[in-house]
């Protein structure tokens, strides 16, 4: 593949794991990478490695997402790619200072808010928005718009699977609303990757990811980042389809039944906009 024209690429959750691996690969390819992470030390270290700008934001605070949007809007005349990669499976049920279950907020509401606040710039840039989702959407997810926090049936896996399902539906609706204005959107499952995934959770997957066996059978962060790198470098229509959800490099054939519900995608968008206080557009 010919070297693509350099792009300004913002990656959240880029202080570790596949986000950091993608940042390295895209910087090596000559793009202007912007590293966003929760840990000041880790974020600065990755940014220093690749010669990138960096910003610190904790998506457990919506104020951080709002501040990040202002900083990015002021710093860059265009944003070609926004990779909403921050997220993960979290711990016991609690509420953030904003009043939401943390898995919902970190994986869906904060990225939705960030994307919404940057939408005018993304449209002007004819940008691509990438969501790091998961096959966990199919395995564990169930979306109830009347109980997004899972107050009545919470488990870490249900909350995580539902949040990843919300990533897919957000992608579908972002494409429907704005693709004819030049915006593209895609979501993907990176596979089982040897990262700090589940490190802060009570999930049964936590010891797997931390074990020697897990590190042997799981993919490297570099391999897990390949799809993100692919979507970030090539326009929709050339090598991938806008609005789609990908697994193993292809449009997924098996998805959660709710992932195909266009009306649910629309209603989730409207409900999310109401919860974070932005216009539904």
Automatic annotation (TrEMBL):
One GO molecular-function entry: oxidoreductase activity
Keyword line: Oxidoreductase
Pfam families assigned: adh_short
Domain of life, per lineage: Bacteria
Matches recorded under Gene3D superfamilies: NAD(P)-binding Rossmann-like Domain
PANTHER family: PHOSPHATIDYLINOSITOL-GLYCAN BIOSYNTHESIS CLASS F PROTEIN, PHOSPHATIDYLINOSITOL-GLYCAN BIOSYNTHESIS CLASS F PROTEIN-RELATED
Protein name (record): NAD(P)-dependent dehydrogenase (Short-subunit alcohol dehydrogenase family)
The species this protein was found in: Promicromonospora sukumoe
